[in-house]
Amino acid sequence: MRSRIRKRRFAVWLAAACAAAALVNAPAATAADPGENPGDHKVHPDVVAATTDRPADFFVLLRSRADLAAARDIGGHGDRVRFVYEAVRADAQRTQADLLRELGERGVRATPFWIANAVKVTGDRALVADIAARDEVVSILPDRELALVDPVRKEPAGGVQGVEWNVEQVRAPEVWNTFGDRGEGVVVGTIDTGAQFDHPAIARRYRGAERPGTLDHAYSWFDPSRVCGSPSVVPCDNIGHGTHVLGTILGDDGAGNQVGVAPGATWIAAKGCETTGCSTTALLAAGQWMLAPTDFDGANPRPDLAPHVVNNSWAGPPGDPLFREVVRTWVAAGIFPVFAAGNIGSACGSAQSPGDYPESYAVGAHDAGGAIASFSSRGPSAFGVVKPDVVAPGVNVRSSVPGGGYAYYDGTSMATPHVTATVALAWSVSHALVGDVAATRELLDAAARPVDDVGCGGVGEHNNVWGHGRLDAFEVVSRAPKGPVGTLTGVVHSGGQPLVGARVRVEGPVGRTVATDSVGGYQLRLPVGRYRLTIGKFGHLDHTADVEVRENESTAHDADLAVAPRHTVSGHVRDEAGTPLPGARVSFPGTPLPTAVADKTGSYVVADVPQGHYDAVAEGGDCLLPARAHVEVEGDTTVDFALPAKSDAHGHVCSPTASKWVSAGTVLPLSGWEGATQVALPFPVNLYGQSYRTAQVNVNGYLNFTPSAAGRPLNTPIPHGDEPNTAVYAFWDDLVVDAAASVRSEVVGTAPDRAFVVEWRNVTFPGTPHLRVGFEVVLHENGPIVVQYQGIDDDPVERGASATVGVENEAGTDALQYSADRPVLGDATAVVFRVPGTGYVRGTVTDANDGKPVAGATVTAVRDGAEDQVVTTDQDGVYQVRARVGDVRLRFAARDYGAEEATARVEAEHAITVRDATLRTGRLEARPAALEIVVPPGQSRTRTVTLANTGTAELSWQVKEAGASTTTRAAPRELPDTTDARTTRGLPGSEVAATAPPAPVLRSWTATGVQAGWGVGYRDGPWISDQGGARNAHYTDDGVLDKLHAAPWAGYWVGDMAYVPSQGLMCQNNIGGDNGIHCWNPDTGEVVDRITGPHPWNGGDKRALAHRPDDDTFYVAGWEGVVYRVKGLSHPDRGAVVGRCVAADPNISGLGWNSAFGVLWAATNSSSDTIYALNPDTCQVLKTLGAPDNAPWTGAGLETDDAGRLWVVSQGSPTTVYQLDGGVPDFTDAPWLRISPETGALSPGGSARFDVRVDATGLAPGVYGATAIVVSTTGRTRTVAIPIKVVVPAHQVALNSGGTPHVDAAGDTWALDRAYAPGGHGFLDDGRSRVVSTTRPIAGTDEQRLYRNLREGAYEYRFDGVPNGVYAVELKFAELGRTRPNSRLFDVIAEDRLLLPAVDVVGAVGRLTAMDRTVHVEVTDGQLNLRLVDRRGAPIVNAIRVTHRPDLTG
Fold this sequence. Notes:
Elements lengths: L18 H5 L21 H6 L5 E7 L14 H29 L4 E4 L4 E6 L1 H8 L4 E6 L2 E3 L5 E5 L4 E2 L1 H5 L2 H8 L7 E6 L28 E2 L18 H10 L6 E2 L7 E6 L5 E3 H12 L17 E4 L11 H9 L3 E5 L20 E6 L23 E4 L3 E5 L3 E6 L1 H18 L7 H11 L10 E2 L2 E2 L9 H7 L5 E10 L2 E2 L4 E5 L3 E5 L5 E7 L1 E8 L6 E7 L4 E3 L2 E2 L5 E10 L9 E3 L8 E2 L5 E8 L1 E8 L7 E7 L3 E2 L2 E3 L9 E4 L9 E2 L8 E12 L2 E9 L3 E3 L22 E6 L9 E7 L6 E11 L2 E13 L4 E6 L13 E5 L6 E6 L9 E5 L3 E10 L10 E6 L2 E7 L5 E7 L1 E8 L6 E7 L5 E3 L2 E3 L4 E4 L3 E4 L5 E10 L5 E13 L33 E6 L6 E6 L3 E5 L4 E5 L5 E6 L6 E8 ...
Parallel strand pairs: 7-10, 8-11, 8-13, 9-11, 13-14, 14-15, 15-16, 21-28, 21-29, 30-36, 30-37, 51-57, 51-58, 60-87, 88-90
Antiparallel strand pairs: 1-3, 1-4, 2-3, 5-12, 6-18, 17-18, 19-20, 21-22, 21-25, 23-24, 23-26, 26-27, 30-33, 31-32, 31-34, 34-35, 38-50, 39-44, 40-41, 41-42, 42-43, 43-48, 44-45, 45-46, 46-47, 47-50, 48-49, 51-54, 52-53, 52-55, 55-56, 59-61, 61-85, 62-84, 62-86, 63-82, 64-65, 65-66, 66-67, 68-69, ...
Pfam families: BACON_2 (PF19190), CarboxypepD_reg (PF13620), Malectin (PF11721), Peptidase_S8 (PF00082)
Organism: Saccharothrix mutabilis subsp. mutabilis
Keywords: Hydrolase, Protease, Serine protease, Signal
């Protein structure tokens, strides 16, 4: 064996966590404000939030309360409980009837709870409002689940230690020895994490095993969430807390481990806490069951079997009232409620609910030295009373834990069972106290040893630290009213010899059970009365008699037990299918009979079985549930067993299978003590109702299918709420992959019969390299999952003594555990997990418009009219559902797609049926894609945008304005060489004022393995580039490092990244070197393509990169502020510039493209590290976000993920990665812009128009911008962004050369042509020009009046009084005569620059056809000169417009 730090056998401290307490932090009801809906004041704010945009679960509390005053006068525990049960249940049924009827009529799911007169409802905000308006409703509270809080300390404990210190300190042994009282006849209930019912310390006191040799869990075990099986017919404890608590109440294994205070008491248990949390539903159901235990189906309630005292070692926030009605009901029924005070420390007022209720008895904790525990919660209570009530040992408490062992725990959870057991001792010895909760409280209080500490208020003997003081069980029992008593004694023989260890049981006014001593003697001190005496021992016939105990007298009754005749019990052990189970074991619990092992035919024989009644148990391995049979042996008896398969709630079963070992070839990048790596799955793998295409392989012997924050070397039983979840645990233990070991993968077979294998080869354990194991997970394409083993030797550790094996769901609430911490594995062991009677339906969901996959579509399998399973398509549109053999109806749906339905048939178990689906949706196109409108001051212009639905379904649309502002054209920043610079500090313009609040941070984590982060990419989790190491690291969304690729191609370092889905490549800027874009395989890091120069954009280093998949272009930027749009890998002229703009903030460090809104996100490195959403064409700011941290000059890369969230990296120490909610562009109305209409709908093939009207009244000359964002109900591209650029010129002149004044279709005025006069504008011709006109139509234009007249022979147009600046000169030409090509040639010269050489209109476009040309010139002297210089023939012009362009430079 080895010595190492083992997983802490972890009893979760339930006292701050369970969801019953979580239900409510309900404020007191107040009067509704004017304008509120009726009943709004009854609704908890968390319910409002939860139901705002979707249905949610909530609890409705009704006002009525049953009158239970008469209960106090009813004698007898069972009768009193029955009265309370019937009264409370009747009141709830009466007052809930109308509400339940209405909910049923509306098809609303509702679960009533009579214990608190509450109804759990699933509904939306409208339903909440309707319910709240009802008079009988007092409040509506949220359904929550709180995480369990660990005991403050947990530590394994070995060895037999006799009576534990804490048991001695409360003086329990004095009670046993003085009064002969160990709690007999008292039933204790626990609401906790369950119990290992057969743990030696507690097994003999379980009510379900009360009759020797028999087991009956009905009415003694309740698991409302079915964590321990479906149905849950056998107790379990997947956390350990409940078993530890029960041990402290009554634990005694008979072999020296005396850990319990009342070892004669009997226990039952309800599993109110599923894992590391307690659901509200489970806690209410458990509280209800304690008042009236039921069978496994929750039916046939038996209030006469209710416990006398209930231990609750869990708690929630202070002042939480929900469970108060449950506690009041228990008290009315005479059930004593004991609660932990809480573990949240020394602050005053920290006592937690329900322990802080006046009706609850709350327990704090002290240590062995008598000092208050630092973690023990203090009062005063939120309900105005002193808390705790008493303090008991709660530090270093040794008790039982699952697996048959013991452990030390610290916590008020550990102190509470001391009080529960003390009540059992008192009620066992004092019949008058049973059910008298008030008198028992007074007795506990008066018997406590007071400690004066008024630090949190109270008085010396009753304060908010110690309550009434330290618990003293002996003083409690001594003071208990006992009434007249006598003694029953006797000696038991058999064949004249004393019979040692015979069981002596009396039933009457009280119940007691003792065993005979070494001379066969027994003695019982009992209240006076008549009793039924039964004496028995294995191998002997029972002796029964009626005896009477008289006051202060000793009644003697001896017995001589006859030896029972012996017979043979035999039979067969099979599974439910009738298959024999060789090696199955048949035993008779509670007897010394040997365990029989079935032969190869499943036959077994047990000889020499004494006559009597027994419960025989057959067990057939770790994949089958035990079967039990009550056997009456009066002669040779045949008993056959059929063992049911062990299963989880989802339906998984397991079974042994033949090992078919696969030696995997691909070595995965895993080594050392910890670590995980992501692997792509060659086919979909289904686990617990969802389908996966990737998995994380962990060093510690498991693979999981959803990201987890970190690997866990220390295993737990499953299910367990802590990570990892959604996992296959082949050998979950603390493992090491050293130089002699490896983890490998392999794909074998051909579709659809492939298998994916992950092999852990020759792995070892910390500190014990001589121990080695090999094991593997085999994921079969058709569903089964196999775990198999080789190289397993006899050492228990190699055989799984500290490992977990099984499968578990995503929430950690359902699992099929094969083994946990048991040495059951061997060489060639192989176990298959499967869901019997099921196969797969697989397919691809595509868009009817483009034929491409639809990611994120939901596929619902419907059986018998009800939803059976819902899965989501992956990024390739692939889904896979597990379905029962036979027909299954499939419903396909996705946001803004029309739903489709289809039927698929699964022919046989493990068969795969392919059923593809095509979803219809609208597709919106807008023309033009951008608007540039020139509007002179004081005028207005209107342009029209046409929308068309080219898709296959109707769509609706709405136009919104965003980013309205005045645009100041920024000039590129001149920079020195900044190739090796990591920040802009010291550069002009790097001091940027912070103008926006920080972006909402969704998650953040430190980038482990990265020295200095910069670039960000995203593909199945973020990639982060490392400046310091020239490498790229991949993480899960939660920050688990799973890949690290070197980048030897880097110049100075590697920059920002962008994923190109069409190529499956991650592309990245090279900072230095060729300053190109290098694209590499995400799986290997190998560069497979690149874009290098020379290009205008890569003359200097560019740090920022984004990819636009709709047209395969990149956006590239650096610290000069220019954003270039360049062609991507699929273009023949890759790297060519498509467009560019200059950002107002030039300090760009990262870029990311949001396809949904057509927005370019930019991160910056400056004194504020501001993040911007930009119009990709104009660099106009659409939204501004502040940096997620407060460290200046730490901004770096940026990327968007598939959901449009932002990922940014901060260069701070350490490198920190943030996921941000970028939201949508800020929609703002521009006062100079009006859009009409703003909404509409389009059928497939339909079109619509909206007008964009710009009014320049009051606008100064300049450039204005906005973006019209058309939001549509289309599945693929939900928004279309139309940039609107408005130019208000300082000067504009438009002339209709040779024609008359004209207003064109755009609303622009063209003036009458005129000869030049100084101070004005016009043509110069030395009197030689002429006007030529035609009435014939001009092709290529709708503006006929601008082209049917021309001026021929003018040599110049001159414009005086022109403000200096850049001007657009628009020239319109049309040849109206019979001129031939090359017969009229002329040059156009503006401001002494030749701009249009050898203009040949006919040669360019032909006769009677419009030709437009625009040139840009800069005016510096207040006069614009446009010369028309003839080469051959006289120059012509039809119209001229000169417009100042403040948006351009010369």
